[in-house]
Specification:
NuoE-like; NuoE_N; 162 residues; 2Fe-2S; Formate dehydrogenase subunit gamma
Length: 162
Amino acid sequence: MKVIVVNSYEPWSAARAAEIIAAHTGGEGPALPILHAIQAAFGYVPEAVEPMIAEALNLSRAEVHGVVTFYHDFRRKPAGRHVLKLCRAEACQSMGANTLVARAEAALGIALGGTTADGLVTLEPTYCLGLCATAPSAMLDGRVVGRLNESRLDRLVAEAQR
């Protein structure tokens, strides 16, 4: 049986964000776990949460903003129902990833970083999924796929569009 994860995000709520922040402030190095939890809940890291995190962790807003914008995995606007990430690291590029990126962009009608108009698919770049030996690789809703070729990519895109 194949399990397909469908992203289901909560609408933005400052109260819910405060709960998430409070749940993670006691840990060591809490900034990244808080940001990941925020994104898991809302599908992105809203700008409005940055001062909340800064205050809770005794950091400046600039420091929190710097963390959010430094890491490619954090998105600034809501994701689609499915997130398809295509690896852009050197190993994948050397094995034809650029052609596959262009194919996915054409099939979905969006560029990397975009979300389809129907909100079904967000296409994102990622920088190494740890599958260099089976490059090129992708990730659909947290499931990694190696040895990507045109037909496997087409199947991923079709799956994401359901």
